[in-house]
Specification:
- The protein is an alpha+beta fold and 380 residues long.
- The chain folds into 3 domains: 62 residues; 90 residues, Efflux pump adaptor protein, beta barrel domain (Elongation Factor Tu (Ef-tu), domain 3), CATH 2.40.30; 121 residues, RNA polymerase II/Efflux pump adaptor protein, barrel-sandwich hybrid domain (OB fold (Dihydrolipoamide Acetyltransferase, E2P)).
- Helices cover 27% and strands 36% of the residues.
- It has 4 helices and 22 strands.
- The strands form 5 sheets. It has a 6-stranded antiparallel barrel with strand order 3-12-15-14-13-16. It has a 4-stranded antiparallel sheet with strand order 4-11-9-6, with no helix packed on it.
- The longest helix is centred in the N-terminal third of the chain and has 32 residues.
- The radius of gyration is 41 Å and the shape is rod-shaped.
- The chain starts with a helix and ends with a strand.
């Protein structure tokens, strides 16, 4: 301890020499800082020891012990959560087109209306296609009659095989033409492909619908999932069917969900992978709605958990707490080094070096930054 003034003088001398340089040597200044911090700790400890001795042995000295409060350290369960942000993706989200186009004659639903699968949404002018269907039906009926007659004659060995095959070919061609016309009519109609809600109808009555532009959007709100991106260091911390908590910021609703799918591809640009969540409660979700997600990635029972304000660092970056040590006379502050394993909501999960803390100890709370190791204190 007698070399402490020499350490202080050397540190101040180095600092004064470095001050002449505008840029300075970073490593040198860090060394000076650490030397000063170590010297301060040594001086504080030495002063505390001398004051404690004088307080007991010098009647002229009035004792002025630091006043502290305590925190009862007990083992408890600790859980750590990772916060992530995602958005709602509708499993059924369809843009509807008219493949042939035509004039919009009627809009049969309103935006926001629930529809059933197969229900017509927009009536488009298909008179030309309807006329083609009538003509195709007539042609198909004629082809069928001719073929049936030719088939009876051929069965009686009347006529040639070529006539029979020509009749059969004309019948099949007419039936194919009729089927094509009906498919064309069906694809021209705007109908709901599944049960859902009409999110938007784009044209107005009288507008021309074209195959290049959507006519309506239908979404299924009952089959929505939530997609989020997670950092690749979470790969071994999530598993299928793990429970998660979803918070919808717009409505402030909290809903339970489970991990339904884990992506196998890692995005090289941001080193993330996708997971999909399935909501396990009936709640209305809208496509692209924002969602905040809390994923529990760590559990520990019988853990040592303390408020973060109790943990301090020395000049070497080591974490420590002060334990109230009782004995003869006033209690003392004992410095115990700890490892901070994880932080969550203003609390630290700690582990003491060499098993120094086991639970049941009294830690110094208020006033912990005013004491030094082995210093006597007064408990409020």
């Amino acid at each position: 301890m007698k070399y402490t003034p020499i350490i202080i003088f050397s540190a101040l001398f180095l600092a004064s020499c470095g001050a002449t340089s505008v840029e300075g040597d970073v490593a040198s200044h860090r060394s000076v800082r650490d030397s000063l911090k170590n010297a301060r700790e040594e001086l504080n400890t030495r002063i505390a020891e001398e004051e404690a001795w004088l307080g007991k042995n010098d009647p002229e000295v009035q004792r002025n012990l630091p006043v502290v409060t305590t925190f009862a350290l007990a083992t408890t369960d600790f859980a750590h959560y990772t916060e992530a942000h995602g958005s709602v993706r509708a499993t059924n989200n369809a843009l509807l087109y008219s493949t042939t186009g035509g004039e919009v004659r009627r809009i049969l639903v309103q935006q926001g209306q629930n529809v059933r699968k197969g229900q017509r949404i927009v009536d488009i002018d298909t008179d030309v296609i309807s006329s083609n269907i009538v003509a195709a039906e007539t042609n198909a009926k004629l082809g069928k009659d001719v073929f049936e007659r030719q088939e009876k004659l051929w069965a009686q060995k009347i006529g040639s095989e070529v006539q029979f095959l020509e009749a059969k070919t004309r019948k099949e061609a007419a039936e194919a033409q009729l089927e094509s016309a009906r498919n064309q009519y069906q694809s021209a109609q705007i109908i709901a492909p599944f049960d859902g809600m009409v999110d938007e109808v784009f044209p107005s009555v009288g507008d021309m619908a074209t195959p290049m532009q959507p006519v309506a959007r239908v979404v299924s709100l009952g089959k929505a999932s939530i997609e989020i991106d997670l950092s690749e260091d979470m790969l071994n911390k999530v598993a299928l069917n793990d429970p998660v908590v979803v918070i919808l910021p717009e409505t402030n609703d909290t809903v339970p969900a489970v991990i339904d799918q884990i992506g196998q591809y890692i995005n090289p640009n941001n080193r993330t992978f996708k997971i999909t969540l399935r909501v396990t409660r009936d709640v209305q979700l809208r496509p692209n709605q924002l969602a905040n997600v809390r994923i529990r990635d760590m559990d520990k029972s019988n853990a040592l958990v303390v408020p973060s304000r109790l943990v301090m660092e020395n000049s070497e970056g080591k974490s420590y707490v002060y334990v109230l040590q009782k004995g003869e006379g006033d209690p003392r502050a004992k410095k115990v080094f700890v490892d901070v394993l994880m932080a969550q909501a203003g609390e630290f999960l700690i582990e003491s070096e060499e098993g120094g803390l086991k639970g049941g100890e009294q830690l110094i709370d208020q006033g912990s930054r005013l004491v030094v190791d082995k210093q006597e204190v007064k408990v409020m």
